[in-house]
Design brief:
This protein has 190 residues and is mainly alpha-helical. It has eleven helices and no strands. It has helices at 3-14, 16-20, 25-38, 45-57, 65-77, 81-96, 100-115, 125-134, 140-143, 148-167, 173-189. The longest helix has 20 residues, at 148-167.
Length: 190
Amino acid sequence: MTKKHAHHLLLFITRTPMFTGKENRDCIVSYIYGYEGGTNGKCAFGKLLKKHFENILGNGYGASGWPGQIELFAKREKLDWTEVFKQQGLEIIGKEVWTKEMKKDFRSKVVNMIGRMDEKKWFDEYWIRDWLYLNFSNNDWYKTLWSESEYKSLRAITRLAKRIRRTKVKVLKADIEATLKLKQQFHSEL
């Protein structure tokens, strides 16, 4: 996968509806196959997904291909197919190629989500889903994007989002206040 293709796929993963109109399995699968076909074999993201999920699941490719492997993993982890695609797609891109421009684009997406945090209703299931696919990695590629203080703030927000999703509790005023404090800490580092 070239840097150009990796950057394009990063933008696709972080802004899927801009490319497909809808954000669902069928649209994503069609787009990836079409994009790969248009590169005349220079972008083999599907093969990278296949290999990645073979390592995770410990089974062969199977008749269902990488979309089916994502489905298996999503069921096992009790996650949405799209979220798994985005999380694991970012892992693949992060490990393969990570240019200065890509870092800038990825950081801007995360910073934009932090900017949406305010006293009003923002901490809903969609914000949590998007936050978790962007900020779930503990790998080096992710850590290098942030200062130590920024990284700690991001991890704290992620832990809170995971807790709320896992327990399905109503977001408490204290949660919002704690998260806004983390937002303030994060912005003081920029």
